[in-house]
Amino acid sequence: MDHVAIDLGGRESQICVRSGDGVVLEERRLPTRKLGEYLAKRASCRVIVETCAEAFAVADQALAAGHEVRVVPATLARALGVGANKQKTDRRDAQVLSEVSSRVNLQSVHIPSREARDAKTVCGMREALVGARTQLINTVRGWVRGLVGMQIKKGSSATFGRRVREAASVAKVTLPACVERQLRSIEQLNCEVAQADEEVEALGRNEPRCQRLQTVPGVGPVTSVRFVAALDQLGRFPSAHKVEAYLGLVPGQKSSSDRVRHTSITKAGPSAVRRVLVQACWSMRNSRPNDPLVRWSLEVEKRRGKGAAVVAMARKLAGILFAMLRDETTYQPDRTSTLGSAVLEHEAQQARDKREAALAMLRSKGTVRTA
């Protein structure tokens, strides 16, 4: 089997083709838009690309042409030799990728479906609009804070412009042209954000899996769409713990020799999904204080603090959402309560084991004497 390594670029890409025994068969540059035609003319081979903006679109074209595809993580590419010894060119990068592929069966990242990529795009564009609106609101608030006697009433972003104008009228302050321009932009963004919200809600309504997830208190269209798009294919996760690890919600570890140290969460997965899960947990804590999952987090809060408790709740919520998708069920608080008790008992047993191990180590060093 031939190995076709492509160093992708926005306009042009570098191609290096090797045979199975590592001999270079072809090297050429090609416009990126013509890669689909090039791959369609080749016999079945392995196509290797590095993760970038164009990677998944090229992967779709290669799969449609009947090729094997390996999308190599950018974090792994340097370990393979890309850019080693400060020698990084498109031609050399393609040569390195093709050489490694001819020697090793490279593992590929998950290639998301077109539906999952479209859902992520819709959510990402919405978040960009919300972020731009927040930045404009903060600039106006900064101007208001520089004035004495002008106070803005509390309210939502949708009424911010009206509230600022009312406050200026009461304080008898004339709004400068630059501030008025900001307020008009905020009001325009309010309309765009409302349309984006409707688009996300439509995605949630048309997807049965999202509807199932929204039976959980605190989980709305944004959280459900983000979660379903991130997991994409449930079959690639053998357990709920794997989902939690994929989303970066499990504790890290920094151990050496006899020292075992657990760190904060790894944050290895998509940050947007972690963020919406944490927001869903805050919403559940505020709206459903008697929910078994909330009561479990309150017990954790007594030992670890509110921040750690909410993150732990988000980790557990991710596992529950995965189980609901896998079993095709809706939210069942009773099962959550049983699971929560088991988790608390497991954590208590781990704490007891750690104390016993620490005491045993001290006894072995003679620091603590046994009675």
Residue share in helix? 55-70%
Q: Could you say how many structural domains there are in total?
A: 3
Uncertain stretches:
none
Q: Order of strands in the sheet with the most strands?
A: 3-2-1-4-5
Number of helices: 14
Task: Explain how this protein is built.
The chain is an alpha/beta fold. It has 3 domains: about 5-105, 2-Layer Sandwich (Nucleotidyltransferase, domain 5); about 115-205; about 210-360, no CATH class. The protein is built from 14 helices and 7 strands. It has helices spanning about 35-40, 55-65, 75-80, 90-105, 115-145, 160-170, 175-205, 210-215, 220-230, 240-245, 270-285, 290-305, 305-325, 335-365; strands spanning about 5, 10-20, 25-30, 45-50, 70, 250-255, 260-265. The protein has a 5-stranded mixed sheet, with helices on both faces. Strand 6 and strand 7 (about 260-265) form a beta hairpin.
Pick out its properties.
alpha/beta, Nucleotidyltransferase, domain 5, 14 helices, 59% helix, single chain, 5-stranded mixed beta sheet, 3 domains, 371 residues, 10% strand
